[in-house]
Amino acid sequence: MKYPAKYFVKFLALLLIATASVASAQTFDPLGTGVITQQISSTVSAENPTPGQEVTISLTAYGTDLNAATISWSVNGTRVQGGIGSTQLKVIAGKNGETKNVVATIIPTNGPSISKSFKISPQEVSIIYESDGYVPPFYKGKGVYTREGTITLVAVPNLILNGTKLSPNALTYKWIIDGTVQGSKSGYGKSSLSYTGSILGNDTIVEVEVSSVGGTKGRGTILLSPQNPEVLLYEKNPLYGNLFNKELSGTGFSLKEKEVTVTAIPFSGSAPSLADGVFSYIWSINGSNIPVPKTQSFATLRNTTGQQGTAIIGVSVSNSTHLLQMMRNTLSINF
Questions:
Q1: Which of 166, 193, 224 is the last residue before a domain boundary?
Q2: Number of domains observed in the structure of the chain
Q3: What is the dihedral of CA 272, 273, 279, 284, to 10 degrees?
Q4: d(CA 292, CA 264)
Q5: Is residue 13 part of a domain?
Q6: In terms of domains, do 132 and 49 share one?
Q7: What residues make up the domain containing 139?
Q8: Strand 279-285 to strand 288-289: parallel, antiparallel, or no bridges (unpaired)?
Q9: Three-state DSSP state, 312
Q10: Same domain, 283 and 295
Q11: DSSP 8-state assignment for residue 121
């Protein structure tokens, strides 16, 4: 059956109008939820917060005036803040591994209500370090980070998922030094990092991002400020050895016997032990050098004339492998 041409033209026109209407509805809906959602963005001040850290969530938008919108904030289902133009919320992160679910409900003046959700789950990551600097046996402290010194940094993560602590060996570590990712030193199970300070002695910020396969993340940061190594002076007793219970340079020393031996201990100078011979010692008395071998860390002082007075004993220590690690100290002796 054939239809007149005029019916075909009308049918084609109606088809085009319907198609255009559908296309228009799919591509442009200024009041639609999807369009409004795309116009609103958010920023979180700390993506991987630490326990107890303050986190700020901010909402921004283009094409939508959030200052005129009614915004309500809830944390774990409880409304904590709301009002017209309430575009920012400050939340204190909970305990380690505790999750706070934050929801922002936005009612713009030109569209339907929309919601944005955030999860704040603090994870604890600490960074400790061990220096290559020398300290005497049984010393309760540790060598400090010095200029040109080498330290080993170790990340100590305490990532918790569903109440269970994740194994440090099953985590991925991304090390960052002064904003630069250390790609070759980062990766699965790489919880430690070796770092050598520069000659300039600038402060260094070291960060580590720790993550699990399931997406749990934590972040640790440490500021490395190089300190100067120091040499401390102790009495060397012929029977008991070095008397570490009393450092002499701060209090002075009274020579009660005819002689005394003073030993110099370089703290935090880069050397595994004093036996390596990297330290050189120059001893002096009242500004004049004492004829002591440079490899000898002690000097024996004698009062052979029986005179009375005060003498200033000095020692300078240098490191043959780290030229900028120089130390000096003095001791006042009354005889």
A1: 224
A2: 3
A3: 140
A4: 13
A5: no
A6: no
A7: 124-224
A8: antiparallel
A9: strand
A10: yes
A11: -
Sequence-distant (≥ 6) Cβ neighbours of residue 72 within 8 angstroms: 79, 81, 82, 86, 104, 105
Poorest-confidence range of 61-65, 120-124, 171-175, 287-291? 61-65
Q: Please report, for the domain that includes residue 188, its CATH number.
A: 2.60.40
| Cα within 13 Å of Cα(173), Cβ side | 27
Coil/strand/helix, residue 187 = strand
14 falls within a domain: no
Residue type, 167: S
The alpha carbon of 83 is separated from its chain's Cα centroid by a whole number of angstroms, namely 38
Name the domain boundary from 95, 120, 145. Answer: 120
Phi/psi class of residue 179: alpha, beta or left (left: φ > 0; alpha: ψ in -120 to 50)? left
> What's the whole-model pTM score?
0.75
Q: Is residue 44 part of a domain?
A: yes
140 & 44 share domain:
no
320: alpha, beta or left? (left if phi > 0; alpha if psi -120 to 50): alpha
Say how far apart CA 52 and CA 165 lie, in whole Å: 19
* pLDDT tens digits along 35-89: 566 678 999 998 889 999 999 999 998 878 899 999 999 999 999 999 999 999 9
